[in-house]
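Try it yourself: sequence plus adenosine-5'-diphosphate, in.
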Amino acid sequence: MDQLASTQLLLSALVLASIYALVALGLNLIYGTMRLLNVAHGELMMLGGYTSFWAFELLGVGTLWSMFGAIALTAALGALCYVTVFRYVVRNRELAARLESNSLLIFFGFSIIIQNGLSIAFSADQRSYTYLNGIFALGDARVELNRLAVLGVGAAATAACVLFFRFSRLGLATRALIQQRDAASLVGINADRIQLLVFCVGFGMAGLAGSLVSMTETVTPFGGFPYTISAFIVIILGGLGNLTGGILGAVLLATIEIYGVALTSSAYRSILVYGVFIAILFLRPQGLLGRKMR
Amino acid sequence: MPDPLHVDLLRVDLLQAKNLCAGYGEMEILKTVDFSIREGSITAVIGSNGAGKTTLMRALSGLIATRSGAITFDGGVVSGLPAHERLEKGVALVPEGRLVFPDFTVHETLKVGAFSPRAHEGWKQRIEDMYALFPRLLQRKQSRAGSLSGGEQQMLALARGLMSRPKLLLLDEPSLGLAPMMADEVFRQLRTIRDSGITICLVEQNVQAALDIADYGYVMEDGHVKMHGPAAELLTMGSIRESYLGL
Ligand SMILES: Nc1ncnc2c1ncn2[C@@H]1O[C@H](COP(=O)(O)OP(=O)(O)O)[C@@H](O)[C@H]1O
Ligand SMILES: [Mg+2]
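Structure, out:
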């Protein structure tokens, strides 16, 4: 029981929560504005991870720099996806009626393309590197610096996004679009521009999350799937499309996962995570913060 | 003294739709509608349920595409423009059912109402003007739009439309679901708004009240304009009194 009160465990939970928060943010933005379910989110993380891995191996560039490259790469991919595919899918009324299920299939296709593209280009080998692995003593806890970096950068990026969407002009427009599409056009909001922005930010945050994770975990072409699942659980916990709810969901799932595993064993991780998922779907399908559908 | 007929000819159309066709999916709802709105007037559109009045408003504001025909506004063709670009030119719609942003406060709603570049200048002062015009909104300044009563939401939707500094304000059933006192209040405000220089076009089920404040009226039926003329003349016509006023 002593172990449960340790700073070590608390830090682990916070590190995981900051990754989940970042990933959930991207999913929520894209779902909230366009009702698109991006199941390729984990693969985008792996793209970010490979960017940082190769930047370190080939160029000797540290993750705290290469993460900007990972953001740029995935954000550009987001723009490309939007401009080539989703702009037309969202605009076409007949396709738009079946958007949630169609988007699932389209993104599923993307995720297979990314997985196989990565394994053709870089082989299926597990990749990892050693960066910022100094130990930092914090009270009774000892943490690697890279895990502190994940926490710091993840929390800062999440906070920056939330502040942007809360207080900026474009953020106001995005929240308007999430609530009422027609009314948003009627006050002069260009939905197309906001959707492009949302794709760039959502994809870019996934790339950032992957880049951060690559400091502490291995990167493989097929390593993204568990993150996609966790991210979906997080946004369902927080209420689909609810940005602040997603952060709460991230903290909650990370806490359950870390403390649950500490109480039982790591073999139970999946059972815990899926258990929470199923419990939420039964007890509060609208999410913890979500309002009941009218 | 100027000849009244002559004065009338001098006044210009702010908006004109010629052979307008529009609809949803496979369905063609508006079939070659000819429609115009005089600058500085109040124009009323009446007609039974399902006649296509809302569809006309959505087509004029750009929420649905023009399939054929043309809409000109303030000297330029706007039929190819999306809603946000038409708003920038000065066409604002207060939609049927109000379509408020449920999670925004009253204050945030007014702020987002001034989102377009044309509305940006002096937006803070304009919010104060809205609170002066609708004191009820000032009292509910920090309330969520979704928690307001129907009448308050209607006022909010109207104020949001005015925040964009429109030249033409289109209103789709502004008195729907309101208590008679509230409805009277809305009609009084429409007069005030017109007198401040904004042209108004409103769709109404309350035919008597609409034609009372309007200068000109259109009667729609089954996606067509069935009749049109000065509001005072329409009010005296037997067929209108029978079909829409129940007299
Ligand atoms: N979103 C829609 N999709 C398909 N048909 C619609 C839609 N909205 C309205 N309609 C149809 O268009 C016709 C005209 O409707 P509408 O313009 O709302 O009439 P009004 O406002 O005069 O009552 C009706 O037959 C209605 O069923
Ligand atoms: Mg209608």
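One thing you can check immediately is this: Chain A touches chain B through 19 residues (CB under 8 Å).
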